[in-house]
Amino acid sequence: MKSKLEQYVENIVRHTESSKAEKEDLYEELLIHLQISRDSLMEEEGLTPEKAEEKAMRLFGQEGEIGSQIQQALFPYRKELMLTLAISSIIFTISIYLISLFVKGDAYIGWLCISMGLSSMLLFLPLNRSFHINKKLWLNSLLVLHTLGQLYGWLITSQLDQSSTVVGLTIWVWLNIALSLGLVYRTTIYDYSSDEKHMKVLHGINITTGIIISGISLVFIVGGLIMIGKFHFIMLVLASPILIWAGLYVAQLKIAKKSTRIAFLIGMIPILACILAFLYIYFPNLFFR
């Protein structure tokens, strides 16, 4: 059974995002430091081992606070960038909703709720110190959904009539999208340890193709909604490329543990799909003669 000191160190390490080997090293370093502190308190103040452990942990600080500080040291400025993105997205969402409501009379309540919810969760993640969640998985999922939500906001913006307002809002939303995608790349690629370079490349390929595939699918879905005027089964068909890409992404991550070559071969499938989509959009004569 683990001691309170070991459990305390484990809780600190859980609040950090790094590779398994890095977490093990961090755990050992923190545990040794606290054990030395405990032994010093026993010698200098004559405390029992239990009392010395409790005081050492109390002097060291609260688990979530320490974990957050270590996280900030490992990945500097990411917290500030996330807070900036969340606040900017919240203000943008409210602005678009009010402008659309009072200028065109269109109330995009569904988009408002979804976009505000995603932005609020982005605001919560970097501030959370109470409990541990798989931040990397949650953060990337939220950032991808947030990007899609901001893309929909851009489509709403493009329907406004005031040219000067549209230009300003368009620049604003694309800055939000660029920051969101930048955080996805950084969290997934650059926050990996140096001994996982092949995984960085694999993630980079999938993130890039995923953004392209999701963007194209979203454009077709929105276009279908505009033409049909209501939800239709065809919308699910248009969204299927995103599900296929996600399935291939998960398969690559599992296969990469056994064979990197096969994982990269599977990664070529969405790349080819993006190339075909590009040719279909810009050179339709190649497909229809």
UniProtKB/TrEMBL annotation:
UniProt keyword terms in alphabetical order: Membrane, Transmembrane, Transmembrane helix
InterPro entries: Perm_prefix_1
Keyword Signal: no
Transmembrane segments: 81-102, 108-125, 137-155, 167-185, 205-227, 233-251, 263-283
UniProt key word Transcription: no
Protein name according to UniProt: Uncharacterized protein
Native organism: Schinkia azotoformans LMG 9581
